[in-house]
Amino acid sequence: QVQLVESGGGLVQAGGSLRLSCAASGRTFSKYAMGWFRQAPGKEREFVATIRWSGSGIVYGDSVEGRFTISTDNAKNTGYLQMNSLKPEDTATYYCAARNSYCSGDGCSQRSIYDPWGQGTQVTVSS
Questions:
Q1: Which of 11, 13, 121, 126 is packed most tightly, with the most Cβ within 10 A?
Q2: Whole-number Å distance between alpha carbons of 28 and 25
Q3: What's the DSSP call for residue 115?
Q4: Is-contact 31 24, C-beta < 8 A?
Q5: Please, are residues 60 and 68 in contact by the beta-carbon 8 Å criterion?
Q6: Full pLDDT tens readout for the chain, 127 residues
Q7: How far apart are CA 97 and CA 17, in angstroms?
Q8: Coil, helix or strand for 71?
């Protein structure tokens, strides 16, 4: 089983940037893909982006495309989410999760295909 730990969250002003990290440990030789989700208080957990550890197969959620960039560093077993042009509505707890099956397009947004999950990191964007 892979274990995932997120870091890099914090408080930033609108228009600013943050980079989140997701460090994988454990059975990392079996890793296939990872994804980022976010959840604001009182809202459903929302798909942000996904990527295969090879760097291919990138899919973004509509609300972040063009502002966020997902990437991986296989040598470090770490995934990243570069977030630019942040808006107050990006405020949420951000989670990374492992994915061990193929997906494409909207199919990649299904939470059920991701397991396990990290504990989350808080991002707060002030206006």
A1: 121
A2: 6
A3: E
A4: yes
A5: yes
A6: 889 999 999 999 999 999 999 999 988 767 899 999 999 999 999 999 999 999 999 999 999 999 999 999 989 999 999 999 999 999 999 999 999 999 999 999 999 999 999 999 999 999 9
A7: 22
A8: strand
Closest CA to 45 of 56, 61, 23: 61
**Sheet with 78-83, edge to edge strand ranges:** 2-7, 18-26, 78-83, 68-73
Phi, psi of 29 (to 5 degrees): -70, -20
Residues 98, 35: Cα–Cα separation, whole Å: 6
Q: Please give the biggest Cα pair distance in the chain.
A: 42
Q: Distance between CA atoms of 66 and 13, rounded to whole angstroms?
A: 19
